[in-house]
User: Which sequence fits this backbone?
């Protein structure tokens, strides 16, 4: 962590989501809101179709940082996001989420890593930040 | 939404026993490649008693407190209009398989903004000894009539 500079890109990764991934996350998390697996229900509440769980996007977006930490997810002390845009997951094509992790701030205790998370060229998370212990 | 929810005391949730396979299942669902999330031997080699939960796993324990909030008879929250606005986890230590966790809900803020309501729910999660593990904070946006 000593050789880092604010603004450094520490990790970049893309994730290919499919409807199968959404069902898997629903089961793992216990969030069975049908807007995440039924187009008819999603459309009945005014959405274009099935969306990824916001918490699914949040959960995968931290993974490039965890990999950068050599897998030690225990060093993530604080993690926050704002959900700014939905991720529509096409039944055939799925959806690709691209995560870029940059050093936002450095201090004695560790680092703040800022995430840019995009889908179809638009950011889907705002103020996505993780505090990492040194 | 009922502004009197702010400051109301909620009962702690029933203890949640964190299972090793549940952590592994959740880890795969969020595309974790971390050996300490998936392999007990790797977790032990890194100094943890068992597999370590990914940073957003606390939502599984927090969920019971959000269900309490939505079920409050006088809350006036229509679940079909609820959108997740933001989310935060603040850890004292990571969640490890074998932990028995209890969450206590507090409504820390209720605001109205342009016909929508915003409620901030803070869930304090402690272990069997009562020591703080993580605080999970969600802001839920309840959309007004269009």
Assistant:
């Amino acid at each position: 962590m000593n050789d880092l500079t604010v603004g450094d890109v520490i990790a970049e990764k893309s994730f290919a989501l499919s409807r199968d991934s959404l069902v898997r996350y629903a089961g793992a998390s216990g969030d069975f809101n049908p807007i995440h697996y039924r187009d008819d229900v999603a459309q009945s509440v005014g959405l274009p179709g099935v969306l990824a769980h916001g918490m699914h996007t949040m959960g995968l977006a931290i993974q490039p940082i965890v990999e950068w930490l050599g897998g030690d997810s225990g060093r993530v002390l604080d993690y926050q996001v704002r959900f700014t845009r939905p991720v529509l997951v096409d039944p055939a094509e799925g959806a690709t989420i691209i995560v870029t992790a940059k050093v936002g701030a450095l201090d004695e205790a560790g680092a703040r890593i800022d995430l840019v998370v995009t889908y179809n060229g638009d950011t889907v998370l705002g103020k996505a930040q993780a505090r990492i212990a040194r | 939404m009922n502004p009197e929810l702010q400051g109301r005391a909620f009962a702690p949730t029933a203890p949640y026993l964190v299972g090793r396979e549940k952590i592994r299942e959740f880890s795969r669902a969020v595309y974790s490649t971390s050996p300490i999330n998936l392999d007990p031997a790797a977790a032990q080699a890194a100094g943890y008693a068992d597999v370590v939960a990914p940073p957003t796993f606390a939502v599984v324990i927090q969920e019971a407190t959000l269900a309490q909030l939505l079920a409050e008879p006088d809350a006036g929250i229509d679940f079909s209009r609820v959108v997740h606005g933001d989310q935060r986890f603040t850890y004292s230590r990571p969640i490890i398989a074998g932990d028995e966790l209890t969450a206590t809900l507090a409504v820390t803020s209720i605001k109205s903004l342009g016909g929508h309501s915003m409620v901030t729910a803070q869930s304090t999660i402690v272990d069997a000894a009562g020591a703080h593990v993580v605080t999970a904070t969600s802001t839920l946006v309840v959309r007004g009539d269009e």
